[in-house]
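Project standup — Tuesday

K.O.: blocked on the structure for the chain from last sprint. Re-posting the sequence here as requested.
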Amino acid sequence: MRTVRRTEKFYGLILLCAAALWLTAGCGSAIMRVADRKEVGMTQLVDSAKEARLIVIGEVHSEMAHHENQLAVIEALRNAGVNFAIGMEMFQAKDQFDLDRWVNGQMSEDDFIKVYYMSWHVPWKNYRKILVYARDNRIPVIGLNVSQSIMHRIFSKGYSSLTPAELEEIPGIKCVVDKPYEDFIKKAMEEHDMKGMSFTNFCEAQLVWDTVMARNSVKYLDRRQGTKVVVLAGSGHSWKRGIPEQVRKISNYPALIILPELPGRLDRSNVTTADADYLILDPWE
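H.V.: unblocked you, prediction finished:
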């Protein structure tokens, strides 16, 4: 009898955890509203998202928990009847034809994986659930990123190395950033072991990245007044000084920024509304 009761408790705990996944964006995770530092549920986050046109959810690409949290928010938005597309750093704008075929069920998974790896090198499994959910529910997916050839040239030779046509397409990029963004860029250079690379080149590349993704998001919103864009991108691009700042410069679209907690870098002790609106807390803290 005791064994049966223990088994029942065990499975009850599993079901409770599954329910918490939907409500709090991850079993053991919680969501903190940065403005008042209070923990909130998914319903409150979705209510806030309804007031925005752009919803940006950051990630560390290699962290599966971050992708599970992103999917939980996407599912909650859809269940609440929100009309949106998913904009992804992981695909380039030139991939749009194949992204549309995937969402419309006109491409096999094996063929789509080939398209994925042409643009992105993080394992497919990290994004599979999100992309399959988009396909199964006919949620549009937008390729936001600039071509890799352009990025490689800026990293190595700087923004001025672009052709006149490319400069016209991505005009006015200058490495003018505030101290927090400068510190972020320097830290990113250290983590990516880019010794010897010009700080200015790296800074220009980062700003081109943010700017192109912002402009592609705004273009989509301009053409579809009744929808939103949920952007999935690295936390460095997703914080308010990244893509959202570039969106602010060219539009009046309200944005909601959701970042994962990164203990020791951006966490519950130091995050402010200059960084994000919501923080998905690290469950092990």
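K.O.: great, moving the ticket to review. Residues 199-223 form the longest helix (25 residues). The mean pLDDT is 88.
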